[in-house]
């Protein structure tokens, strides 16, 4: 039996609402690592429902998706033809030594213990291989998002309980590498972009976050009613413009 995940009950919301990543991110992975994705072997860890795994595969990589949640992995397999999939954790990657060119974490590095995960990443990377971590971070200055993070804090009783501080509200991401590896240089790239989606998809996106999995259903419904009213004031046509900056950090294997 696999270890349970906070995302086990969020699969449907995640698959229906989460955004993809801009093409510039995958161009930048190649530029910052000095390696092409086409023809490479990549392990996409914390792959969720396979959003980044499919994009890596589309760029010509042979992808093995590694995911802790069985329900998430089943969803990934069902909609990701050509992508390999295995149940596993960043702390003990089910991969051979020096077997991949890239290890990627899309919207996932903040869930790992760097002291355990970094040695595993470097174990499975080929010489010259690269760790690439990226996050879609919403534009918190957008008028419709005013007060949103504070309302989330009130709903969940504080800050999200991530394993490390690589990604948090109101701050730019960074890659926590742990004490032993903190000296390694992180090459950074950012891409700003947006998408236009229906209000209900925006609300579903809000419910797909890990910290929503334990919120009382009645309190969650009340929260969503408030957010729906806010969104309708800013987007009376019912279509929300979500603005993001996708942050990428690349670390070469020493």
Outline the structure in words.
The protein has a domain at 11-141 and 161-194 and 243-252: 3-Layer(aba) Sandwich (Rossmann fold). The chain has helices spanning 11-17, 23-33, 51-58, 70-79, 114-124, 148-156, 199-207, 217-234; strands at 41-45, 62-67, 84-87, 100-106, 125-138, 187-198, 239-252. The longest helix has 18 residues, at 217-234. The protein has a seven-stranded mixed β-sheet. It is globular, with a radius of gyration of 18 Å. Helix 1 packs across helix 7 (199-207) and helix 7 (199-207) runs antiparallel to helix 8. It is of the alpha/beta class.
By CATH reckoning, the class of the domain at 11-141 and 161-194 and 243-252 would read Alpha Beta
* Percent of residues in β-strands: 15-25%
Stated plainly, the CATH topology of the domain at 11-141 and 161-194 and 243-252 is called: Rossmann fold
Which regions have little confidence, pLDDT < 50, spanning 5+ residues?
none
Number of helices: 8
User: Would you count the extended β strands for me?
Assistant: 7
Helix percentage: 25-40%
> Could you give the order of strands across the largest sheet?
3-2-1-4-5-7-6
CATH homologous superfamily designation of the domain at 11-141 and 161-194 and 243-252: Vaccinia Virus protein VP39
What does the radius of gyration come to?
18 Å
Largest sheet descriptor: 7 strands, mixed
Structural class assignment = alpha/beta
Per CATH, the architecture of the domain at 11-141 and 161-194 and 243-252 is 3-Layer(aba) Sandwich
Name the average pLDDT: 94
The topology string of helices and strands comes to: HHEHEHEEHEHEHHE
- Distance between the terminal alpha carbons, to the nearest Å? 35 Å
General shape: globular
């Amino acid at each position: 039996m696999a270890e349970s995940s906070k995302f086990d009950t969020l699969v449907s919301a995640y698959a229906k609402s989460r955004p993809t990543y801009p093409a510039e991110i995958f161009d930048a992975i190649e530029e910052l690592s000095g390696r092409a994705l086409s023809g490479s072997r990549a392990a996409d860890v914390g792959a969720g429902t396979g959003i980044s795994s499919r994009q890596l595969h589309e760029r010509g990589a042979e992808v093995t998706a590694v995911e802790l949640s069985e329900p998430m992995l089943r969803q990934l397999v069902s909609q990701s033809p050509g992508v390999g999939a295995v149940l596993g954790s960043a702390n003990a990657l089910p991969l051979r030594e020096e077997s991949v060119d890239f290890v990627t974490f899309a919207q996932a590095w903040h869930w790992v213990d760097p002291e355990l995960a970094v040695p595993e990443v470097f174990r499975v990377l080929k010489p010259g291989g690269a760790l690439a971590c990226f996050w879609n971070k919403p534009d918190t200055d957008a008028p419709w998002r005013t007060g949103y993070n504070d309302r989330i804090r009130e709903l969940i009783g504080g800050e999200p309980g991530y394993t490390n501080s690589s990604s948090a509200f109101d701050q730019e991401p960074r890659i926590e590498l742990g004490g032993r590896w903190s000296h390694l240089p992180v090459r950074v790239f950012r891409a700003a972009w947006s998408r236009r989606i229906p209000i209900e998809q925006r609300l579903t996106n809000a419910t797909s976050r890990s910290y929503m999995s334990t919120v009382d259903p009645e309190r969650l419904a009340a929260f969503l009613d408030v957010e729906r009213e806010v969104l309708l004031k800013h987007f009376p046509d019912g279509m929300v413009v979500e603005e993001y900056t996708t942050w990428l950090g690349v670390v070469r294997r020493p």
